[in-house]
Amino acid sequence: MIPARFDYHAPTTLDEAVRLLAEAGDEAKVLAGGQSLLPVLRLRLAAPEVVVDLGRVDELRGVREDGDTLVIGAMTSHAEVAASDAVRRHARVLSEAAATVADPQVRHRGTIGGAIAHADPAGDMPAPVLALGGELVVGGPGGRRTVPADDFFEDLFTTALGDDEILVEVRIPSHQGWGGHYAKFTRVAQQWSIVAVAAAVRTEGGSIAEAKVALTNMGSTAVRATAVEQALVGAEPSDEAVRAAAAQAAEGTSPPSDINGDADFRRNLATVLTRRAVLAAAGS
Amino acid sequence: MTATTDAPAMEVGRDRRRKEDRRLITGRTRWTDNLSAPGMLHIAMVRSPVAHATIGAVNVKAAQEASGVVAVVTGADLADEQGTLPNVWSITPDQKVPPHPSVAVDTVRFAGEVVAVVVARSAAEARDAIELVDVDYDDLPVVLDTRDALADGATILHPDLGTNESAHLVLDFQTEGAAGNVDAVIETASKDGIVFEREYEQQRLIPAFMEPRSMLCDPTGEQIVLWSATQIPHVLRVLLALSLGVSESKLRVVAPDVGGGFGGKLQVTPEEFITVLVARRLGKPCKYTETRSESLMVAHHGRAQHQKLTLAAKKDGTVTGLKVELEADMGAYLSLLGGGTPTLGAFMFNAIYKFDAYRFDLRTVFTNKAWTDAYRGAGRPEATFGIERLMDDFAHELGMDPLELREKNWIRHEEFPFTTVAGLEYDSGNYEAATAKAKELFGYDELRAEQAERRDRKDPVQLGIGVSTYTEMCGLAPSRILGALSYAAGGWEHASVRMLPTGKVEVITGSSAHGQGHETAWSQIAADALGVDFDDIEVLHGDTAVASRGMDTYGSRSLVVGGMAVVAAAEKVVEKAKVIAAHMLEASPDDVDFAGGAFSVRGTDQAKSMAEVAFAAFAAHDLPDGVEPTLEGDATIDPNTFSYPHGTHLCAVEVDTETGQVTIRKYVCVDDIGKVVNPLIVEGQVHGGVVQGIAQALFEEAVYDESGTLVTGSFTDYLVPSAADLPTMVTDRTETPATTNPLGVKGVGEAGTIASTPAVVNAAVDALRPYGVDDITMPLSPQRVWRAIQDGADR
Amino acid sequence: MELQHRFTVPASVDTTWELFNDLEQVAPCFPGATLTSTDGDDFAGTVKVKLGPISLQYNGTGSFVERDAANHTARFEARGKDKRGNGTAKAAVRTVLSAAGDGTAVEVTTDLAITGKPAQFGRGLMQDVSDKLLATFVGCLSDKLNDNDQPAPARQPTAGQPSKPAANEPAPQQPPSRRPAEKIDALDLGLTVLPVLARRFGPAALALAAVAALTWWLLRRR
Questions:
Q1: Residue A15: pLDDT over 60
Q2: N or C: which end of chain A has fewer CB within 10 A?
Q3: B44 pairs with which residues across the strands?
Q4: Which residues in chain C touch residue B111, judged by CB atoms under 8 angstroms apart?
Q5: Which of A39, A154, A158 sits opposite C222 (nearest CB)?
Q6: CATH classification at residue B780
Q7: Pairwise CA distance, residues A221 & A233, whole Å
Q8: In whole angstroms, what is the distance from residue C117 CA to residue A45 CA?
């Protein structure tokens, strides 16, 4: 459980962090909350020569409202995200998802930016961000750029982040007034999602006007269940109507098979959880 | 038995908070890894990533030259002195025991086997250097299932043995007056009754104690001292001496505070051998602490059996015969108890029922996996699972209520003491009382009604009820029985009770607590026996230099055997003290009473306190003739029988048929563990035991891939449940005292685990009977439950 | 585990066989691999694998077990060890080419065994990941054969659509939001030094790629 030797830096500004990263080249790793990186280091599945710790870069931390956009600093912990009134108001499903991550200890150390940059297909952060049409702001030697979530999650543990770039913040258009629910299926409480569904629903005049649904761990990245979203437009928030729409949840997905569930089981879970998440979101 | 005091017991039976908890819970104590010795070196192990291979070159040069490295030792280096790890239980006269070197020399037979040892000045440098050892492996075919291991043409793990079967034990039992053996009984049933067959799987489990194993050997003193987080310091000392050729009097073994064992630390390990050998070779203290990944991979696993049960019964459900066929996976080598663990189950498959004939047929088999040995219950949970699943399945077959079927066949209260078909005499028990209480607490009839209702409306969430009426044999064990079973050691336990001159007490016990609360319970026992304050008693254990005699802790034996030794030793103290007190009081011992911690002359107010007597014995100024100075009592108790706690556990589960999720809605256990010394401790044991049994039913499994790699290599994948996953249990007790020891106590350490697994699985299967499901392999993951429903629908 | 991949290309069997024996063509399809020496039918190489936080380096050897130019079948075995003792990887790869009309049907059967840490801590995704990975690799080869007029200097691997190997992946009925087309670019790993080596080690490179790619994929699973 002892990592291999590395040089450690704890910059206090983003610019300094970017500079350190550029200097170290591909022998560096960025440390956010450490909940994914530290186990890898301890298990010696990696031995970077340099670790750049963002823990003291205060400018990366915090939740704020910027007009109609909710902005969450990359170094904001899951616990802060889950506790934030602003997040609950503007991005209910994200608030719920953050509250389900692992256990309290992990939530207080782990960060939304770290989780998103790590892009574990079983991680809970990408699906809500994807569903709500979020954008990721990335900082590098060339300055900042913004990447829509649709383009950001590319594959297993692979994002649009370059080796010399750092995730700065998550920007989410306000979904105030929308209902939201994150339905997460696990065998034991602190486990990675076997499958999870992020649902945001806007009801109007007693029926579903618009729905945004994204799935966790139904493929190498989170995916939007667009067929479901389309089928829900104008639907009654009833068990029967939502069930029919949710039946398409697994379309186009390629869920993994592992000891927690094979692909068939996951496809089944996707439909069941989608129904439950949408109904809860419509009711909330 | 003689009462030592006339005053009512003040401590025994009382809900005392445990003395040891503050230091254990806060961790502010001497765990083995906290210890250090001057000049101490650190050991790290180079372990094979492959499950079966011959070892080619072991290149240690780069490692030897690494920073801080003092030595790199290979199997070849140790070949002449490392001997073989011991197995102490020959379950058959011709049991095959392969040599087991601590460091592999020619061949590795499981992933994780040690192939080289690095010793360095710091733990980090040792960890760095193991990466530099380059080992060439020539892969051999991997055998992962006992069935494959026994098949024709299977790769043989130990070629010199010529087979992968270590032993084949067949025990044939029949009661007096039975018509014949089990074959005859089954024959009869096939004509006039029912023959009912089932196969069940006991998956492989990992004991997963909270404190990883750790050991420190200091060879620099007159005695070689080994501190080890072990359950068995005494047994370890003897076996180290025998196996490594170290003079036993030159060896001292200390188990400091140990953070959990559950049978998983009941072992003589390669790591301990290596630590001692290396320390001795280098002449310096050496420490090894395993990582959690190592622990999950190589610390012995539990369970792992294929079971086939054949039941013979009359048409009305009266059971007549039972045949049990087991294949038990030993792993790559035979562990300390090896085949003995499943053998313990031999006496428990017949459980609480009256059979005319019974056969136990066990094959112990080698595979390229980690070795297996005792894990909470050691053979008895496996047996109880088999028979209790069978009874629930049979009840369904007959269309009978499962509790009714039990009652039809169990030993009735008035029939005790009862000798079972397996030849054990159960001293006492009251299955009727425990069951009635459990049913009431459970709300059995209401839950059955709700079950029916949910079935009628085809609720996607179904309700199931599972029964487990268990007994277990514990208080291991009468030494003569162990001898008859060819187990190499005895089952006694020793205690010394020492009155110190100032009136305080030391209780020295051969039991070796690793979380059980002995310090508290023994203090309660001694406090009552001696009339001394609970807080004035210190319980010492775990160090062979302090507790010189002992047989250590496992098999729910410590209270029944070790606690009774404390009682007996305390009685001797009181007896001697009475003689001294009488002398001090110038009276005859026959006229002296002992009560409330004082000796008084009957009919007068003349008295001497125990403390005064203790000091007098120390000063020895005026002791009666023939009485030696100091006030101590010594007793070694060998139980003449096992103890037989029993109970009824009822479990209600909700099964979400859409997702396969099984949630325990209600769990009720009524256990009869005889007299209770400390209800709080008993509650803790029941909770912990039940939880580990639930974990087997729903969550845990050690899974290997086809290369023989343990893919549940961390707690991410090996699912040990937390409090968040578990129900609040309703626990209660009936109390039918044991008739075989003075306190009337039975063991409780393993009972919860033995009982609970079948209760949970029975409940889930019960919920899904209408869906065509009659069995689900453990653990009942949502995937498996869901799949069973889909498959049942196809039938 | 055994993994099967099939694809069909418009090139002739001989052209396809040529490519498979041309390391310069095949090597660029798997980033991170370096062939360090060759000796007759044997070779040695290194695969540096980096994905997300995980970074491992496997040193391996491989050799042709069977090469039948007349029947266009080749069998190759490779094994590698992680340089820090994290485990081993072993692959036996059989490629069979057969004429399919004017084109060639390629069948790749890989028998794969990964031991040690990636399997212990990989959360059990090896089969899927390996499958996908090999699909990507063969997809790249397939692409080359589809536009095989171009000579192939060592270049960045081009995109292989995951559905290209066709046989085992159903076409998506709804577009997932990720980017299949850019997948291989995104999977770019460090060190892509690809020295030119004897042409006949194409299939060998394929097998090493299988080991590399496979171990790389499964290593992504922390």
A1: yes
A2: C
A3: B118
A4: 115-116
A5: A39
A6: 3.30.365.10
A7: 25
A8: 8
Q: Is residue B725 domain-shared with residue B707, that is, in the same domain?
A: yes
Average of per-residue pLDDT across A137-154 = 96
Q: Does C178 touch chain A (CB under 8 A)?
A: yes
Last residue of a domain, one of B613, B637, B661: B637
* CATH number, domain containing residue B61: 3.90.1170.50
Residue B772: inside a domain, yes or no? yes
Residue A97 contacts B where some CB pair is shorter than 8 Å: no
Q: Would you say residue B15 lies in a domain?
A: no
Query: Does B554 lie in the same domain as B460?
Result: no
User: Is the minimum CB–CB distance between A5 and chain B shorter than 8 Å?
Assistant: yes
Give the three-state DSSP class for B488: coil
Give, in degrees to the nearest 5, the angle at Cα B577 between B572 and B581: 155
Give the 3-state secondary structure of residue B335.
coil
Residue in chain B closest to C86 (alpha carbons) equals B49
Smallest Cβ–Cβ distance between C116 and the set B49, B133, B717 belongs to B49
Choose among A44, A187, A268: nearest Cβ to B719.
Answer: A187
Pair B242, B83: CB distance under 8 Å: no
- Cis peptide leading into residue B417 (ω within 30°): yes
Residues B288 and B316 in one domain: no
Instruction: Report if residue B180 sits inside a domain.
Output: no
Calculate helix-pair angle for B233-244, B270-282, nearest 10 degrees. Answer: 60
Residue count of chain C, please give it: 222
Q: Are residues B744 and B779 in the same domain?
A: yes
Alpha-carbon C110 to chain mean position? 10
Average pLDDT over residues A59-86: 98
The predicted structure's pLDDT at residue C184: 32
- Closest-approach residue (CA) in chain A for B711: A259
Q: Are residue B712 and residue B590 in the same domain, yes or no? A: no
Q: Is residue A45 within 8 angstroms of chain B, CB to CB?
A: no
Contact criterion met (CB below 8 Å) for B505 and B532:
yes
In chain C, whose CA is at the least distance from the CA of A127? Answer: C177
pLDDT tens digit sequence for A96-135: 999 999 999 999 999 999 999 999 999 999 999 999 999 9
Q: Average pLDDT across each block of 10 residues of chain B; the chain has 795 residues. List them in order.
A: 53 93 92 96 98 96 97 96 94 97 98 98 97 95 98 97 98 88 96 97 97 98 96 96 92 96 96 97 98 97 98 97 98 97 96 97 98 96 98 97 98 96 93 97 98 97 98 89 88 95 95 93 94 94 94 89 93 96 94 93 93 95 94 94 94 98 98 92 94 98 96 95 94 92 88 96 98 97 98 84
* Residue ranges, chain C, pLDDT below 50: 149-210, 212-213, 215-222
A27 touches chain C (CB under 8 A): no
- Write out the residue range of the structural domain in which residue B287 sits: 39-140+212-258+265-298
A280/chain C closest Cα distance in angstroms: 24
Q: Do C120 and B711 touch (CB under 8 A)?
A: yes
Domain end residue (candidates: B298, B322, B346)? B298
B49 with C113: Cβ contact below 8 A: no
Q: Is residue B713 part of a domain?
A: yes
* Cβ within 8 Å, pair B721-A5: no
What ipTM does this complex have? 0.96
Contact B49 C87 (CB under 8 A): yes
Burial of C169 (0-12, 13-18, 19+ CB in 10 A): middle
Interface contact flag, B699 A190, Cβ < 8 Å: no
Residues B323 and B288 in one domain: no
Residues B447 and B522 in one domain: no
- Asked whether residue B468 falls in the same domain as residue B571, the answer is no
CB atoms within 10 A of CB C110: 26
